């Protein structure tokens, strides 16, 4: 098994190789709380399916899930509501457009977000979170993340959530557009409130790697063996991570790395190596399509070393 | 002078000819208050530059300005703020798209509504109405309409405004999109509040014809001779009425009728025959592009009779 | 009459004022034959409806019609085939897009060019030119231009036509797209051959001004008084010149100058001041939307002096 | 191993289950030669990596590769020219648009087809086929297919190629658009000639299954063990088959079936179950996105039975 060779030193060496790339990227500026990130940070953790853990770089810091939360809310909603209801509201096709794009909504008939990984689709999924109130929905989502990450103290960062809530104009635009055509049922301000908090859930690389490991194990808790996500839902989520998990660079990532992965503008990436391990990465310097520039490079190098592409 | 032949009977005859078309159209359904209109109503008034008045059809009823208000807010804002400021926020080009379209905003760089007659542009103009508060801005707008229409009791219809305020999801989507890119400065809910009230100003055909006469006279009050709108602003407004006043049928209207005109989904049309007369029409049955179906036909027949195309 | 003040000296003075703008523009590079034009040339001619003629600048040179030919082929086809046939193939709406755009074709249903002034529409009109063969169609078109310009020696420039024929890839793309959806009936290579020759017809400012005078007189020959273009067709052409004659700056031109006009990438502009005069301009330095930069400025200054806006 | 259960009878049973779906689809009408296909035909073959073969349905008939050829020309060109050259001309992202779409080309800057599975991208790949003449390029392509399919008599169908050549207006439109922006170097008519012949290569289900088996084996010939396609190229091709192999239903197919697959409008589908088997399907009745309706269902049922999704 190639994983035998994987250890803290190996991981650190690979991180050392990719650290210089961070200088070529830019920290997300449009959310004030994210703009304060340390651009040169690069950290990674690996959580193997048999429970071993490796870490390297500037690990230990927390960061917010941002778009990584899209795949977790999707998993929760799929298990709660079933494929039929979910896919009557949101499509399954990659769009080729930036995550914030609204034109495809206008050109689609009936109006339907292309997939749950672009903002329009993710907002429609958030609208479907289980719970009678937005407080209840948020609590359910955070509980879910805690279970997946194996940590009961995970919380959302109030400052980041507030900051995004104040400036989420594009997301409100998408929501009102969908409201007009009946794609969402809830109130726009409630969904924005919930979505910004969902995106602001704080996590560290190791916790993220553990969530990745759950997906690696087709939904099973790597410690207890319990089924946290149904097999079918885990499979669907991995599919979306491949076809549209890395923004409008997903196709390129599939070719160059080839594992299910989801990134966020905070600089986080969760990658899933089926039946082997989950990976959590943090590197806030982003490339021009919104992915952690060093994180992408690190995954490419790991794939060269450990040959984990599913293709 | 051909106007010599214009009188109440002539106008009534033409209205009789076009009344049957009303059955082929549909009353706007998306605003509950508009859906209650009497589909077969057709009314028209002509106000000549020398102050004579002709009326025919089911005149006397009031209706709301809806999109016709776009040209009045534009006139007010142009005279208050000047061309430079206005056109740094809103473009001058017809778009060929439906009035509610958002894609062109996404494809334009920098983000800028194509013109002040589509909803995006009209909302940006409303944001520029003079006044320190939304109440003051509304009062200024209503005062302005009163002066143009020569009637001090003009008011907005609270029911229609409320009804639209509840359902203006697309306009909120446009506003948040523009907010993201700095096209508007005010608060979205304030602008929506103001815009729905501006659209809900109630008027009758004769008052609308009188406003048309003001534009016919390059901005002069047809009774007092005072300059209500500057000549330059009146000229700009007439230009926009020709290039984009009749939704995405403006090009066809220019070819088939050929005078500056602005329509609204309430079924109103204001037409301007330069130096001759203004026309106010009400016919709530709309064609598939949102123009009064009988109103359009009436203007075509009037042009055949009175040869008023400017082309 | 303000025209009394118009004379060669006045025109020369205005040209002197706008000449410096030529340095801010660029000569069209994509057609090799056009790229050799003298960037600082500015010339203009005025042809009044009573037959007087004024000229200024570097007049006397010939240039090719390019897109100005679109309005002449439209006139010929409208008079030969009637509105119904023409407008079943081509629309009447300004599009807001660049003249070479293909997306609007894809988004329209059924497939139909928005108007006859964008390339797609102009190519569909060329397909309808009267004549049994492409040679006959071309001869008919050139005869028509000769009549309008009052000069029997007008010919097309073979070098320019050849040069464009070799490089008309975008126009072929538009034609094949329309061929797929039945918008055109003829062979693509025949239409390209014909269209490039139509665009390459050579003319000078004075001839162009005379054609403008024909439109000023609603289709009448300014010397003989014969009806060269039917009144209705002349009116339709003037309408299109206002709504879409100056590429995707037509709206702005209508506001800033306000007369029917058509420009070409050779740097020519034909402007029509109804019932007063036609204007022919040549200034090959173009602005970023394809209009003669000095020509546009000259028309703005002439409008300030002679107040000829129709709005 | 689940494949133990796979045999001719099992396959026939599954085909029997999906045959009724053929009545809900439609045979491609736009290519006359395809319109004559027998709508109710359903055939399938499986070629295991250890050389066993199973067949069912109306097998034995040949059909043309159509879009399935896109993945074979890509493989050949990637191995001949390398990733760098190929991806400087063609992108790696799924587009979400129909395969014939041209708008994305207009909106991309620089102009570049989104991926090699839509027509624009496939045509650009055909332009890169190795060989000094179009005859040589075609010969090389056919040789390549023969090797992959293990049959030296494979040829293209001249009638189908001629029929498509006459009617390939959209593809010519795409090619001229790309020619304008330097995406292709060859002559449009040469590329069309080559592309229509490439699409018209005739094959049967078993041959197609064998090609699938080559991809299953990461490029190895299942009989001789020689490397027909490099591992890297086979991996890239499988990735594109997942992200964009089933037209604009690729995302849905990935979720519902989950293996690399490529379909064609002839009704063929090649599917690849990594390290297990290749599948060749023929069912000319298509769904509204251009995929064999019974073929899709058959793959869904096979996945339920043999659990071959890679996700």
Automatic annotation (TrEMBL), chains A, B, C, D:
It comes from the Bacteria. InterPro entries: Beta-lactam/transpept-like, Glutaminase. GO terms for molecular function: glutaminase activity. Signal peptide: none annotated. The keyword Membrane does not apply. Belongs to the glutaminase family. Homotetramer. HAMAP family: Glutaminase. This is Glutaminase.
